[in-house]
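RECORD TYPE: inverse folding
INPUT: structure tokens
STRUCTURE:
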């Protein structure tokens, strides 16, 4: 089995200090890669330093110590590195899926570096599979299927809101509010129906169950219990709601954009005290 150094030229990065560099706007200039976890390791964007050429795109960066030791990313633009970040340049041409797979393989060795151990000397000796031994899904998976999904829907600024004309309304005036139904774990069966509980993330979707939906698409759910109290979500499909969730049926024509706006207002209006038919909503 080959080692990291058999497939990559392993070297130290630039070891630059961010406070000595000139920052630029996000996405402009040169990416500055640190040991941070998340964000592809990019903690800032900076101006190019005279006499210090950036590393080329197509390399892997690997954190050599810290809480995110062996966190490895593919850099798709020229970059600089902070201290304790290694550069891994492939010795033979590799596709993007192959590089991402090797990044995952390297990161999987992080458990070896608990209790503050560093990977400065041993990174090059970690075992990796050969290129011809990679799973079939590496090349068949579309790794760019989410490219561009973070782009704004519209490029023109929205018109200003005329908030002076807003008036308070009780939620019960705008919505017919119905309580969810209790369903125990013992009674849950795996299926296709969305089960909405009092989560504060994932649109409240806890799992999918075999029970039939009790509420239609196009309504709102508002948690009134648990960690996600007052969290509001728009439900785009029919669903089953738990008894920790109120379901808001609109009394007006509500499209998805309006629904998302109303959810934002509910959250911002400190609706922790809102119960069925009470509380106010600016509209």
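DESIGNED SEQUENCE:
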């Amino acid at each position: 089995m080959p080692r990291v150094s058999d497939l990559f030229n392993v070297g130290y990065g630039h070891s630059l200090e961010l406070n000595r560099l000139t920052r630029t706007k996000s996405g402009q200039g040169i990416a500055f890669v640190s040991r941070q976890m998340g964000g592809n390791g990019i903690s800032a964007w900076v101006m190019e330093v005279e006499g210090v050429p950036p590393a080329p795109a197509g390399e892997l960066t690997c954190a050599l110590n810290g809480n995110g030791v062996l966190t490895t990313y593919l850099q798709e633009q020229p970059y600089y590195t902070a201290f304790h970040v290694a550069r891994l340049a492939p010795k033979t041409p590799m596709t993007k899926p192959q590089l991402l797979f090797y990044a995952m393989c390297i990161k999987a060795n992080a458990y070896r570096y608990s209790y503050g151990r560093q990977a400065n000397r041993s990174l090059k000796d970690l075992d990796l599979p050969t290129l011809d031994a990679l799973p079939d899904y590496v090349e068949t998976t579309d790794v760019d299927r989410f490219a561009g999904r973070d782009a704004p829907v519209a490029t023109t600024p929205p018109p200003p809101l005329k908030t002076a004309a807003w008036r308070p309304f009780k939620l019960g005036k705008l919505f017919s509010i119905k309580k969810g139904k209790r369903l125990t774990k013992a009674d849950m069966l795996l299926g296709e129906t969305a089960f909405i509980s009092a989560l504060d993330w994932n649109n409240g979707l806890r799992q999918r169950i075999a029970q039939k939906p009790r509420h239609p698409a196009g309504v709102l759910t508002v948690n009134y219990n648990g960690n996600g109290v007052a969290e509001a979500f728009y439900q785009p499909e029919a669903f089953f709601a738990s008894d920790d969730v109120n379901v808001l049926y609109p009394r007006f024509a509500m499209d998805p954009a309006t629904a998302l706006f109303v959810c934002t207002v509910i959250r911002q209006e400190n609706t922790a005290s809102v119960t069925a038919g009470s509380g106010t909503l600016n509209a």
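NOTES: Residues 256-268 form the longest helix (13 residues).
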